[in-house]
Each structure stands twice: as C-alpha cells, then as structure tokens.
Amino acid sequence: MDPKEARHVATEGLEAWRQYQASRPKTEHVSLGGPLRAVIFFLILGAGTLIGFAIGSLEGGLFGGTRDAIAAAIISAIFGGWAHRIPRIAAQWERAVILRLGKFHGLKGPGVMLVFPVVDTVRFVDTRLLTIDIPHQQVITRDNVPVMVDGVIFFLVRDPQTAVITVQDYRYAISQYAQASLRDVIGSMTLDELLSERDKIQARLAVVVEERAKAWGIHVDAIRLLDINMPEDLKRMMSRQASAEREKRATITKAEGDRDAAINLAAAAEKMAKSPGAMQLRTLQTLDGLGSSSANTVIMAVPVEVLELARTLSRAFLGRTGGDTGDRELSSPGSDSSAGRAP
Asked: What is the average per-residue pLDDT within 10-25?
C-alpha cells in the first residue's frame, strides 16, 4: 500500500471513529448516591472496628482488643465495600433497568433503589429529550448533483426496557439509521426540490426514522437539516441564473410601465382634444414646473393665442377651399349632360 492510500484509509478510519464518538452520550449516568454510599461504608467500618475492639478487650485486655479490632476492621472493610454499593439513586429523568443473573428483573426509579452487587446489573437510561448530530453526508440527488448535507435528531426514550434489551446501543443505532434514511430521501429528489421543500424533507425523514425507531422503544420528535453545501461552480451558475431572473423581471416591469404610461397619455390627449382650454392649462402647468428652478430659462417665441388663431384660420381656409372644389365637381357633370342633349 502506497502512502497516499494509507493516508486515505487512516482519514476514513478517523472520520468513522469521530462519528461513533459523536453519537455516544457525553454522560451516561449522573451519580447521586456517592455521599450516601460513603456514609454507609464508614459506618460499617467504624461499627465493626468498635465491636471487635470491645470483644477483644474482654478476653485479652488492651493487646487482645487491638488485635481483634484490626481483624474486625479488615472484615468490616470487605463487607462495607460490598454493602455500600447496594443503594443507588436515580435522578428524576432516569430509569434503571435491572438485570438479575442476566435476566430482566424490573424497571426502577426515580429515587433510591437497592441493587445487590455480583447478583444484579443496572443500566440507567435518560428519558429526557436527547440530540444527536448527523455528520456531513455526501448525497447525489436524482438529477445527479452532489451535495453535502448534515442535520440533527431530536428524540427521547419512551420504553427503557425495550431500548436496552432490544438494541445494543440505541444512540448509535438511531444515528446510523438516520444517516441512511437521509441519503435515501434526498437521493430521490432533485436539487430544486431539496432547496425549496426543506420542511417536507424533514417531515418525511422524521416519519421514516420513527417507523423503525418505534420498535426500539424510541420516539423521534423531529429531524432538522442544518446545512446544504453544493459545489462552487454550481453556486456560481445559480447566482448567474438568479441575476438573469431578476433582470428579466425588471425588464418586464419596465415594459408594462411604459405600456400603461402610453395608454394613459393617449387617454389624456383624447380628453385634451375635446376641451379647447385644456391644452393651454397643460402648457401653463408645464411652464410652472420648469420655472421652479433658477437654472431653467423658458422663452415663448409665439403666444398660445396666436397659435390658436392660426389653427382656426387654417381650418376655415381648408373648409372654404373644399367647398369650392365640391361646387366645381357638381357643375361639371351637368354641363356634360346638357351638351349631350343638344344634338
């Protein structure tokens, strides 16, 4: 194996170990019975030593009492070392699964319980809402786009007996099952669906994992996707596409505005044509708007009244000319007809 392959194998091994450690609980059990067990141990040791010294003193005086006290202290320490492990305390959120001689004996807690060493084995289970990180998973979508997705699982143990007896390590099991389900669900979707339907993906993942975890005594509260990473070239292409879409919408909006403005201008021109004084008022309004700034200079070469008079005379002249032309056209056919009847 060359150094490159060895480095690759070592990297994969470290990543697998990191994922396994991330799936394991930080603290399996909060020890609350330590002070109580210490008190029991020293009480047994002190009581045994005093009883041995008293018995030895009655039979052999001070020397016999000291000898018997040492022997009693050794015996008391051995017995106290076994007896002080009997009382155990489970917190309010913990449940203890008791196995007696390898067989399920009962479920105890919270509070003080008696667990006999050598005979009984106890496993504490946290029933609070727990979280496990889903490490980055490389997934290929249905349209062949590689993405990196990570998330987090929120779950709690509903049946501690089933979770301990059925599964070797329920935390690691649900973590691995969630990773596999994440690849399956995202692999059946396109990139657009992955980016736009995150809520549906999370709900579908929760349902898929819940169906399997229910048999392990675990309830999946929710699964959330934290980050979706895509290749850099794909990000640049999507950025250009979004920019083009925005430019397209801006062009369409501007064209619609120009169309509406043209329609309104045509309607305004039609109304002004029907009212003789409307054009003059509009002209005066325009001049007022231009005159508000000292940088503008407006020169009216011809007054509006003169233009209106010229327009009126032009209409009268055209009407008269048209009337004369019509009279000539009407008289010409009559002349031809009379000339035709003369012969």
From this structure: 64
Could you give the C-alpha distances from 181 to 146, 153, 271, in angstroms and in order?
A: 17, 12, 69
CA–CA gap between residue 328 and residue 33 (Å, rounded): 130
- In angstroms, rounded to a whole number, what is the distance separating the alpha carbons of residues 292 and 21? 77
All structural domains of the chain with their residue ranges: 19-85, 93-125, 129-234
Give the whole-angstrom CA distance, residue 88 versus residue 111. Answer: 8
The pLDDT score that the predictor gives to residue 333 is: 47
pLDDT in tens, 104-117: 999 998 888 888 88
CATH code for the domain defined by 129-234: 3.30.479.30
Q: What is the tens place of the pLDDT at every residue in 260-295? A: 888 888 887 777 777 766 666 776 677 666 656 666
Bridge partners for 124 per DSSP: 96
Whether pTM > 0.70 for this model: the answer is no
Residue 84 near residue 35, CB atoms below 8 Å: no
Is pLDDT at 154 greater than 90 in this prediction? yes
* H/E segment holding residue 165: helix 160-166
**Sequential DSSP letters for 274-324:** H-HHHHHHHHHHHHHHHHTSTT-----SS-HHHHHHHHHHHHHHHHHHHHH
Q: Which secondary structure element, helix H or strand E, spans residue 30, and what is its range?
A: none
Q: Which amino acid is at 258?
A: D
